[in-house]
Here is the input.
Amino acid sequence: MEPLSETHWDVVISGTGLQQSLLALALSRTDKKILHVDQNDYYGDAEAAFSLQEVDQWVEKINSATLRSFQNASLWKSETEAEKLSFSRAYTLTLSPQIIYTRSKLLSQLVSSKVYRQLEFQAVGNWWIYQRAGEDVTLAQGSLQRLPNGREDIFTDDNIDLRSKRGLVKFLKFVVDYENQAETWEPHAKDSLHSFLSSKFKLPPSLQTIISALTLSLDTPENTTVAYSLPRIARHLTSIGVFGPGFGAVVPKWGGGSELAQVACRSGAVGGAVYVLGTGVKDINLQEGSDEPGVTLTLTNDEVIRARSLVQATYLRDNPSTKSPVVVSKTISVISSPLSALFTTTVEGAPTPAVSVVVVPAETFHVDDILQLHPVYLMVHSSETGECPVGQSVIYASTSQTASSKKLLDLCVSSFIKAVTAENAQLLYNLHYEQKQSTFESYSAGVVHHLQDPSLDLAFDDALLGDVEEAWNVTAKNIGLEDSGTFLQFEERNPMNGDDEDEDEGF
Amino acid sequence: MSLVSGPGRAGETSGSLPEELQLAIEPHVRYIQSLDSRRDELEYWLTEHLRLNGLYWGLMALHLMGRPDALPREETINFVLSCQHENGGFGAAPGHDAHMLYTVSAVQILAMIDALDELERRGKGRALVGSYIAGLQNTRTGTFAGDEFGEEDTRFLYGALNALSLLHMMDAVNVNKAVDYIVSCANFDGGYGVSPGAESHSGQIFTCLAALSIAKRIDLVDVDKLGRWLSERQVECGGLNGRPEKAEDVCYSWWVASSLAMIGRLHWIDGEKLKEFILRCQDTKMGGFADRPGDMVDVFHTAFGLGGLSLLSFPDLEEVDPV
Amino acid sequence: MASHGVPRPSTITTKDEQARLKEEKDIKDYRALVDLTSEREYSLEVLELTSKLLTKNPEYYTIWNVRRRLLTYGLFSKPSDSSLLSMELPSTSQTDTTTTSSADSSSSLSQATPPSQNSRMTGKTGTTLDAIKNDLAFLVPLLMGWPKCYWIWNYRLWLLQQAKERLDMEIARAIWTQELGLVGKMLTRDNRNFHGWGYRRKIVAELESPELGGSSMVETEFEYTTKMFSASLSNFSALHTRSKLIPKLLNERRSDDGARLRFLTNEFDLIAKALWTDAYNQSAWFYHEYLMTNLLEPVMQSTITPNMSSTERSAYVVLQIENVKEMLEGEEECKWIYNALLGNTMALWQLEERSPMSDELQDCKTWLVELRKLDPLRRGRWDDLEKEFRRF
Here is the structure.
């Protein structure tokens, strides 16, 4: 391969996280010279997926503070059950177990950009709420209650009395049409969802909790506002049934966001982009004022290259933000049980879900005598996701970071395991880490465009696509790309394979 | 005559302009006249199996608009007769098998243009048509099959009685048995289904009521119950649907409204709102009606849109017999 | 059929030259296919041509008939069926005089096949069972693509009838049984499909019949309606089917009067639960009306509790009216509640053969005022009701 410095690059993209990869995909049909580098020796950045061995290396990296988005990683492996853990490559543990709602623009853009065929999507089906048994908030005993997906679930659920059924259905009818009913909610936009549900729909606290579980809010119930919640609940409800009965969200098989990033990069490579891993951008030198605006970059291997534009993440910026970043505490746990009970469908014709969502509402547990203020979310992945061997499952747990959040996550995971399985399911492996999101927004400085940090949201946030589109527009302008077409809208690469007959058969 | 949909499109769903609420008679006439000239469109050929129905619907529309001569009479007769088979039945077009549906259409067309005599003169005779139809009655149950392969449906029963009454050959079949069969299709909601046990459906209710009307046995209908059910077919936009919780469609303007008329309950729906809905389904420039505003027009919905308007005594339209 | 629900394109497109040429070619291909098919020799080639044509246009009923004849006179020709070859089927196409291309070759349909073709068809893929199985499989994607096409459903039923007539009972039963799975799948995709429910009714009737060695399936079908209703409370098709199954169900259970009353109460509880969940559910109200009919029109309709005395009926109706009244609180905008109150109260007068009491009449008038307000579309109906009230 000729040295990188021989080429005058049109675009250099630094980092192979989801946003950068989608940008590479968006640019893949141009005849421009594109160099895509990543300082990591793996694809996906904050959305990467790892074998067990790769996790070991990653943890080391975090703890030596070379990855700015992550901190406080710790790894635990069961000694008594060590033999149950399979070989390293039997696992694909993902850093981004984000679910993608079926109405997300991401899915339509994966279709219009023709890369969806290289992906295998799986259903995110059952949603559960963890209910503590009795009043003892330290004792890990409880049960799972299925979250209603709509009118029929509410009808069937005998835990809900007749009047509450009516209140819930009224709220559901309202929320899917909330945009047309501003007079009902706008005066309460900044109130908490709980108080709104209580005052406007006469819903008792237990049902308030059920509704707010659908928001996937990481914040406390008090700080989870009506304005924040309604679009998220509406998104949840209107997504169900779009791709088939019984589910409203999907995840890509083999490691979620990592798989998306890699497929997008592969398209970039097919389009002629050059990929170099293990090499980052060390130093940036803007050529301002010269005839030809551009940038000179020193790579971490000390190669110096020239480019007409650069796109990179904001967190690579030097001066730290004045606002403190959002931090989420996460664990990835491998369990020695398929947790089959979690994945059975109740809806006729529904696919067996590969992912199930369990919500542990705020105020379920005490940790070190402190009441749990934030909800905890467990994304439970079956072996169908390709992330663990058959007979096991992976739990991705998240909650807002606090002094006791690690302990809380562990308590939630162990309580959940107890609630869901009568058999002797063991925790085999547990990785804890914290992920930060800086509050920087995307911005441009000359021909250098900075992308904001990936979202910590548990569901794919369409705003991210807007960011990528903006980066794409800016870049196109910087490199003088005329007629760049419509964002992520491509013809078939090979018209011979243009047979779309099985388009609807994805699930 | 073609059933090709389009090229016109019905008006927008919103922002109905006052001029849109006029009936665009001239464009509709031109639309129907143009239908047979669309042989350069694939859909023309894909709908050949409906040609005779299409001709009937087109003629019905023209008659309602007081323009019966807009299609050439002689050509119409020639085409109809070219669809007839040795056994007396008619197919949808030359080369298509005989079937009750098209035989009924053929008789209706010839009756409409006062040309039933041509059956004797140039066709295979009125009696043979009647015996083809009569031969499809199930002597055990009283209902009718569509053709030799035996599919039974109250649509065929109505068609048979309708055609036979036009041919003055009601004696050829067992009318009482046919009436008994209709009664056995009645449901608790007052409506009728396609066969005993089947769910009530506006289209089937029309066929059953019309058949009972022809047999002069409308007294067998639970009019209040059926009237309630039928009146609930009207939805907010003014249009009518075919079954509970289904979408509205212009063709039900005919099936439901004429059924209500037959049981004297047409005033149980809002005629003005229905008129407005039907008018919003027309393409005022290119002519034709669609199933609902914004969709492609076709001759089927054109005939039944106009039929609905005529029932609602829309000015400029000939009065229609609900049956 | 006519263009139901075909949305208009967002822009008015004038076809460009390329599109025009393509359409021209498509027409040519299609018409060539039609011509080929209408030659009507009964060879496997023609069968394939009909498949091709029907895949493009399953509404072309004549081609389904061609296919029926192809099977009847050709492929269903294993030795044991030989007697059937001489069976006379009236075929309109054979007597067709008005067309040119079809008449000449069609006469060969009822004659013996040329030996070469005959031997091919009676080869190992030529048995009746295989022919039927292949054809059933051919129809599945067509049904999925055109679930509302009468001709496909009819043809499939015809094919199943052929299985019944031509195959051993055990084999035929297995084929019919599979249909339940298919129609279940179709109804999961569109739970109101008219054809689907009708088809299911026919399949069940056949599977219950002695010809297929069957017995009653009323219990499982009743369960099926419960499942379909629970999956979609607006599924009136399921409730309709339920109403038709109940009399048979109770007879087969040999339910005594007590069991019948419990059954009725359970049905009322189920529908009340649905109405509490969503009082705007028209389908559930119609079913409620069906249950009320059982009490209110004893002579005509009492299929659930035929031996209930009129006093018991009255009491039960009054109880139901009270239950509906309870639903009003918090749902004062729901016309269906007033509608039910009004209808049932008036029916009570008839049941008890008496004039309304003054407070009842007052209630009815109040409800009518609400109905006028909430449901102006049907004001003609309210006018008629008001006239009726004036009689008292």
Remarks:
- The longest helix of chain B spans residues 51-64.
- The two ends of chain B are 24 Å apart (CA to CA).
